[in-house]
Design a protein that fits this description.
Layout (H helix, E strand, L loop, with lengths): L1 H32 L1 E7 L1 E2 L2 E2 L3 E6 L5 E3 L4 E3 L7 E7 L6 E6 L10 E6 L9 E5 L4 E3 L2 H11 L4 E7 L5 E8 L2 E5 L4
Parallel strand pairs: 6-8
Antiparallel strand pairs: 1-12, 2-4, 3-4, 4-11, 5-10, 7-8, 7-9, 9-10, 12-13, 13-14
């Protein structure tokens, strides 16, 4: 019976190691080969007693004026929304919102969750993105907080083919300030 226990323990350890290795290599692959998009942002207070030091990213595309985009489909609260982006300017800007991934759109598409409904009369359409926090050591987080008051900040995202994104780096006044390590 002890042989089965030892074999089971080894098998469980190998499976856990394999899962962790897959998570790490998938992240590295997405950062390396994902389509880069630069979004305009600001930062909000980087200190939280329980979560550590981070900066909340105040992404400009999190709040979109209804008149600035075209809506395709029906939207319900907290369901996926796909934002088609125009990258011709210094920062990517939204051009249309879709309730399903727009396969016919040639540019980058980013996935978030709708904080509005199709029936809403609000002029501002709010979208929640899964990368709304940037964790940093205390000195870096405080530095970002001070910089946000004076300069234009940008977030470089790596977008996968399904529209999900992850933070690849940060820019200040167009110059790369931080680049996420692959591992």
């Amino acid at each position: 019976m002890s042989r089965f226990l030892i074999a089971g323990t080894i098998l469980a350890a190998l499976l856990q190691t394999g899962v962790l290795a897959k998570i790490i290599t998938d992240r590295a692959a997405a950062l390396q080969s994902g389509q880069e998009v630069l979004l305009e942002t600001g930062f909000i207070d980087p200190r939280d007693l329980f979560r550590g030091h981070y900066a909340v990213l105040n992404l400009q595309i999190s709040r979109i004026d209804r008149n600035d985009v075209t809506l395709h489909g029906r939207f319900t609260w907290n369901d996926p929304v796909y934002v088609a982006l125009d990258t011709s300017g210094p920062f990517a800007r939204p051009v249309s919102l879709h309730d399903a991934y727009p396969a016919d759109f040639d540019g980058p598409v980013i996935k978030g969750n709708a904080l509005f409904t199709s029936d809403s009369t609000n002029q501002a359409l709010r979208i929640d993105f899964p990368f709304n926090r940037f964790f940093a050591p205390l000195d870096r987080a405080l530095e970002l907080e001070n910089l946000r008051r004076e300069q234009k900040l940008g977030v470089i995202l790596a977008l996968s083919k399904d529209g999900s994104g992850m933070i690849k780096g940060l820019t200040i006044e167009g110059e790369k300030f931080y680049e996420a390590p692959l591992y």
